[in-house]
Specification:
Distance between the termini: 45 Å
Strand content: 5-15%
Number of strands: 3
Radius of gyration: 18 Å
Number of domains: 1
Oligomer: single chain
């Protein structure tokens, strides 16, 4: 038990290091949370606000901080033990609620991929999540990005029951899904306008738009 708790703590600490906030701050003297529209300290905003080279470095580090602790833990722990779920989900939890930023962390997409990369070849969840994001970004395109991610993670969780047998990995996937969905719902409801659309390639199937500021003022939200 102590070994699982130790590696869970290591994974959480690794995930809580906010490279996409630190690197622009240290090397470019820029606060990515102030520059970006959504205030998210993630590598996506580094790409758009700082540039491709810095964004690439941050992306690789965000992937690594999820992959490395999970991969190392597998050298010493069994993924069949239910406590491995904590090791698997801890980097995502650390990133989403980072003590470094007073629990105001990122949306945890890159670090999720990192944690799932660390699980290979013990699990196929990496490919299920990647396929879900591709499908809901192309064939059945969902907007905005928040709703697309929520749908993709929900689809990954459903798909995991068909490709995964380990209760620990299923539990870890459920925790990760809950964290990421929470972060994206929180961001979505604080948008100035709540909009969504569903497209079959370029053909719009249905959608909705609501001025959340107006609804909030009227007491409806």
């Amino acid at each position: 038990m102590l070994s699982y708790l130790f590696w869970t703590a290591v994974s959480f600490f690794s995930g809580s290091v906010m490279y996409s906030y630190l690197i622009p701050k240290v090397f470019f003297k820029k606060d990515i949370t102030s520059l970006s529209k959504d205030g998210n300290p993630g590598c996506g905003n580094v790409f758009s606000c700082i540039g491709i080279p810095c964004g690439t470095v941050c992306l690789l580090l965000e992937l690594a901080k999820g992959a490395v602790p999970v991969w190392l833990a597998l050298r010493y722990l069994s993924p069949d033990n239910i406590m491995f779920a904590g090791v698997m989900a801890a980097p995502v939890l650390g990133h989403a609620f980072s003590p470094m930023l007073r629990r105001k962390g990122g949306k945890a997409i890159a670090v999720t991929f990192g944690a799932l990369i660390g699980l290979c070849p013990h699990s196929l969840l990496l490919f299920v999540l990647a396929a879900s994001l591709v499908i809901f970004s192309t064939a059945i395109r969902i907007t905005p990005h928040n709703i697309r991610v929520i749908t993709s993670y929900a689809a990954m969780m459903i798909g995991s029951f068909f490709v995964e047998q380990k209760a620990s990995v299923l539990t870890g996937a459920a925790i990760i899904t809950a964290i990421v969905i929470y972060r994206h719902i929180d961001d979505y409801i604080h948008r100035e306008k709540n909009t969504y659309g569903v497209y079959l390639f370029s053909f719009r199937l249905f959608g909705h738009e609501a001025d959340t500021a107006r609804l909030s003022h009227s007491g409806k939200t």
